[in-house]
Amino acid sequence: MMQIWKRLTEGWPAINSQTLKADGLAGITNAAIVLPQGVAFALIAGLPPEYGLYTAMIPPIVAALFGSSWHLISGPTTAISLVLFATLSGHFEPGSPEYIEAALALTFLGGIFQLLLGASGLGVFIPLISHSVMVGFTAGAAVLIAGSQIKAALGLNLPRTTPFLEIFQHLDFVSFSSLIVALASLGTILVSPKISKKIPAFLFALLIGSLLGAVLPGSVQTLGELPSVFPSLTLPIPSLEFVGDFGKSAFTIALLGLIEAVAIARAIAIRSGQKLNNQKEIIGQGCSNIVGSFFSSYMGSGSFTRSGVNYEAGAKSPLAAVFAAASLLIILLFISPLIQFLPMPAMAGIIFFVAYRLIDFKEIAHILHRSRTESLVMGITFSFCLLFDLEMAIMGGVLLSLGVFLSQTAKPSVLVRAPLPETPQRKFVTVRDASLNECPQLRFIRIDGPLYFGTIEELEKEISRLTLQSPAHQHLSINLNGNGYIDFFAAEFLSATIQKFRETGGHVYMRVTPSSMRRKLEEFGVIEVLGKENLFISKFDIISSKVPTFDQQICAACPHRIFKECPPSNSSSKNRTMPPIPRKERL
What is each CA distance from 281 to 126, 215, 274, in whole angstroms? Predict the structure, then answer.
């Protein structure tokens, strides 16, 4: 057991009496917040309220023990709850035993996908998904979440699947008592922080809503009795038919959960100074959903609200998540009989606030102001949420984001470089106009960006353009110091370029400093084709070694002495001399 515990706690901060006290207080604070949230999120997911509380007990413990973040708190979230409802409500009656069984099976399957992504290392691509996708998706989900609660806020007893616009055909049956309860709960949440930030706004809103629901005329619908505060054991193993029908949906929800969790963990790790292990975090999320599905917990992820509160409350280690789950269970043992009296309109008011907070207006304005491309990604993702299903929105946004990323990286920067005239250091700069003189035989280019199969077409186009533009440049120096990655196909292209120049009587020289890039070039056979004598570390080495070997007749006709090593031109005076350039100032 000690070995297992040591393995789980590897990378944790030191545990002592002070950290245990801080984690315990943070856990109690989190339990108070998750009580109303868990109930509200379960209602969004189309599940009985107790399932939101179960999801706030088991998954956070597993995610904390198997994950990497010290402060991330997992559990039910609004976006995943809504996607779960959107996925299953068209096939099963929300809240029915069949619906619950399908939700748990979907959770198990999604956890398996997450675990596979983490174990295989493919989870490293999760952080590459554009932030604009998540901003657009959460904004769209927020609109749908708010729309789903209008029936409860108005006291309309309509099926869950009633279309949004159809609700307005039943306004004659609005319960004004329910509307007052919903608005009072919402107003309480908005006002409480202005009075004191120490007030548990969600709990206070439920208290005010419950009191109003009890005294106002007419009946206000309540949650009903909780069957048990202890999660029951389940067997959520999905059938092959279920996997075939809902496999894509499970993967979509799993991907959404990982995007949420990794983004939140990364944001808090920046503030806390922790070095985060993304792969371990992804594995922890997968384990939490797999284990949770056996304990009546539906799909969860990292919660931004509770993770932020956990950090602000002074949590020091992942044990805070364990204390939060234990505190929630203790609280439920005492107050579970009272939960049945919570008014549904009060929960609707809380969910309205949660939906509003999901829309990051500041970040939306920032994206719209800064980037047209990211604005397009965000806008399309948001529109897909409203026009199509949420699965298509998240997958469409992710594919669009990756497409933008690939299109940008597929266009590496190919810059022609030349020395500034009349400067002691002879500093090289990018050639942007015809006034900067180049050596008539040797052209210097710098390639910036990753070199992989997607960049080959653009590289070939640029080098062909430069060759046609100035066919006299038979010698080409390629600077690869701006490249952190090269794959086999890009290496083959470089080898082919070397051969082409050699066939026309020219040569290619490469400037490569990083040892990792040199190893890759050697591994892919580029250095063998190039020749080690043509591989250099500095521009000075290329110039001093190769310029004296160039066609002397061309050099003699050249009106410019670009380099110190250049022989005198025909127009130069026989007595003309140039001051020596110190070696450290040479090219």
Answer: 11, 48, 13
Q: In this predicted structure, which of 6-15, 68-77, 376-385 has the lowest mean pLDDT?
A: 6-15
Read off the tokens for 144.
């749908």
Tell me the per-residue pLDDT of 429-484, one tens digit each, with 9 for 90 and over.
788 665 677 888 888 999 888 888 888 888 888 888 888 888 888 899 999 887 77
Strand order in the sheet with 507-511: 428-430, 413-419, 442-448, 475-482, 507-511, 535-536
What sections of 275-360 are H helices per DSSP? Answer: 278-293, 304-312, 319-339, 344-358
Quickly name the fold that domain 413-585 has: Transcription Regulator spoIIAA (3.30.750)
SS3 119: helix
Query: What is the Cα–Cα distance from 503 to 385, expressed in whole angstroms?
Result: 57
Supply the Cα-derived Rg of the chain in whole angstroms: 32
Cβ partners under 8 Å of residue 450, min gap 6: 409, 412, 483, 484, 485, 486
Asked if residue 563 lies in contact with residue 580, where contact means CB atoms within 8 angstroms, the answer is no
Residue 417 pairs in a beta bridge with 430, 444
Residue 170 tokens read as 């039943």
Question: Quick check: 16 pLDDT over 60?
Answer: yes
The answer to which of 159-173, 290-304, 505-519, 545-559 has the lowest mean pLDDT is: 159-173
On whether the CB atoms of residues 281 and 74 are closer than 8 A, the answer is no
Torsion of the alpha carbons at 524, 529, 530 and 531, rounded to the nearest 10:
110
Coil, strand or helix: which one is 417? strand
Whether 202 contacts 33, CB under 8 Å = yes
Handedness of CA 7, 12, 17, 21 (dihedral sign): negative
pLDDT bracket for residue 581 (50, 70, 90)? very low
C-alpha–C-alpha distance, residues 297 and 157, integer Å: 27
CA atoms within 13 A on the CB side of 219: 5
Structure tokens, 237: 């193993």
> Is the pLDDT confidence value at 48 over 60?
yes
Residue the block writes with tokens 């210097």: 444
Query: Which of 467, 440, 435, 442 shows the shortest CA–CA distance to 587?
Result: 442
* CA dist list (Å): 89 to 53, 102, 210, 256, 283: 21, 10, 29, 19, 29
* CA 522 and chain centroid, separation: 34
CA 222 – CA 230 distance, rounded (Å) = 21
Domain ranges of the chain: 2-221+242-407, 413-585
354-367 pLDDT per residue, tens: 788 878 888 899 98
Residue 575 has pLDDT above 50, yes or no: no
Q: Which of 360, 300, 330 minimizes the C-alpha distance to 73?
A: 300
